[in-house]
Write a structure and sequence with these properties.
Blueprint: E1 6-7, H1 13-34, H2 38-54, E2 60-61, H3 65-87, H4 93-101, H5 110-122, H6 126-137, H7 142-149, H8 153-176
Antiparallel strand pairs: 1-2
């Protein structure tokens, strides 16, 4: 299958399978740049391919198929982050303080530390969480985040500072409890 911008109607099952085999792994690793969970990355890439197959008669791709797939995976991953954080209510300040005050049973391992960091991130305000995720987990630049979310680079910079400060406070409280 040639990778030029053109309609993809008439895409045969064999050509689709070849396209899937050719691009799945690299798209999966690309999705992993945005998402922490491997299952989420797999689901995103599979959804993109399913949509491509289902909409093959209607889709008109103006770029290469590869560029379309990368853009679709990126957009799905960002939308997933947005919806995930919108669904998960942040911890109320009282709950975060209570978690910080509870003495741990033992010295935390890497898994416990990851859980603590995730709790700290979950306690951030929604926009702050999304910006932090896109910066630190997805590896986007401040400019890319600003463009994606329709905000200024200064807002992104400010929100990152807030996120880091709150995470330091949250994690510092957990360390002080030791």
């Amino acid at each position: 299958m040639k990778e030029e911008g053109r309609p993809i109607h008439g895409l045969s099952a064999a050509a689709f399978e070849a396209l899937f085999r050719q691009h799945y792994e690299e798209l999966y690793y690309y999705a992993c740049r945005y998402l922490w969970r491997q299952e989420d990355a797999e689901e995103i890439v599979q959804d993109v391919f399913v949509r491509l197959w289902e909409k093959r008669e209607e889709l008109h791709i103006s770029t290469s198929v590869k560029a379309y797939l990368y853009a679709a995976v990126r957009n799905r991953a960002i939308n997933h982050l947005r919806s995930k954080w919108a669904r998960e209510a942040p911890l109320p300040p009282e709950a975060a303080e209570q978690l910080a005050a509870e003495p741990p049973e033992q010295e935390p391992g890497q898994e416990d530390l990851l859980r603590l960091v995730q709790q700290g991130i979950a306690a951030l305000p929604e926009q702050c969480r999304i910006i932090f995720q896109l910066s630190r987990q997805a590896g986007l630049t401040y400019g890319e985040i600003a463009e994606e979310l329709g905000i200024s680079k200064e807002t992104v910079k400010s929100q990152i500072k807030i996120a880091l400060s709150r995470l330091r406070t949250f994690l510092g409280g957990r360390q002080a409890a030791r």
